[in-house]
Amino acid sequence: xxxxxxxxxxxxxxxxxxxxxxxEGHTILAxxxxxxKGSALEQHGQGNIHFFQVDLVNPVEIKQxxxxxxxxxxxIDGIFNNAGTFGKPVAPERITDLQQEVFxxxxxxxxxxxxxxxxxxxxxxxxxxxxxxxxxVKFPAMLLPYASSKSALLTLTKTYAxxxxxxxxxxxxxxxPVDTALxxxxxxxxxxxxxxxxxxxxxxxxxxxxxxxxxxxxxxxKASYINGQSLIVDGGYTLS
Length: 240
Ligand SMILES: NC(=O)c1ccc[n+]([C@@H]2O[C@H](COP(=O)([O-])OP(=O)(O)OC[C@H]3O[C@@H](n4cnc5c(N)ncnc54)[C@H](OP(=O)(O)O)[C@@H]3O)[C@@H](O)[C@H]2O)c1
Fold this sequence. Notes:
Elements: E1 3-6, H1 12-23, E2 27-32, H2 35-44, E3 49-53, H3 59-69, E4 76-81, H4 100-117, E5 121-130, H5 144-164, E6 169-175, H6 181-187, H7 190-196, H8 208-219, E7 230-233
Parallel strand pairs: 1-2, 1-4, 2-3, 4-5, 5-6, 6-7
Helix pairs in contact: 1-8, 3-4, 4-5, 6-7
The structure holds NADP nicotinamide-adenine-dinucleotide phosphate (NAP).
């Protein structure tokens, strides 16, 4: 059995992935901000999920998490860098700051987590970064910082894959629309999101578990020959 870090484990895709890994018997270090959701996750995790309250906006909290877990969990077999935020939608020509929080959570936090975890990786460790279908479809102009940070995450994924020559694997998933709190917020509520999804090739978005299955596969040794890839998981959304 393996030990995985999952960020953004308190909701949506991260929660579904943590629960699936726990069901398979693995140990999960589950990160999130919401302590109540973290406690609920632990209760559903068959004794395999350990919640850590970490705000990825704060690099000091990330470092503290690694210090706190070094003795009890000295070896790490994989990471799902999943937590993400789309920030405040704004026209690109009107961006007044660099939307640091978006880049911090979506790019710099995964980067720091990988850096701090590397010395604890076991041979064959697998890292999956949650990107998006950026670069494959026209992205809403109001989400430029989100799209840019997710593109940067793809570059990071391929760079690390090349750097470690297969000793550790680095891949990205690029989900199409998924039925989660994040996408509901983006569309102005679940009803509007569901309505918009009528135009999806298959008429509806993914459930988080459909992405989690793919992530669990990429994290596992079954995917030992997949490295440096960005895998679109979108039910054909990018075809339409
Ligand atoms: N939903 C989609 O259609 C879609 C499509 C493509 C890619 N994605 C990507 O999938 C990932 C997961 O999103 P989701 O759709 O599953 O959304 P979600 O259900 O809203 O979950 C987002 C998770 O990220 C965590 N998070 C956000 N900001 C954080 C911060 N500063 N520090 C620590 N944790 C933070 C949240 O933690 P708390 O709740 O504890 O605050 C939550 O667990 C994101 O990276 C998103 O960009 C989503």
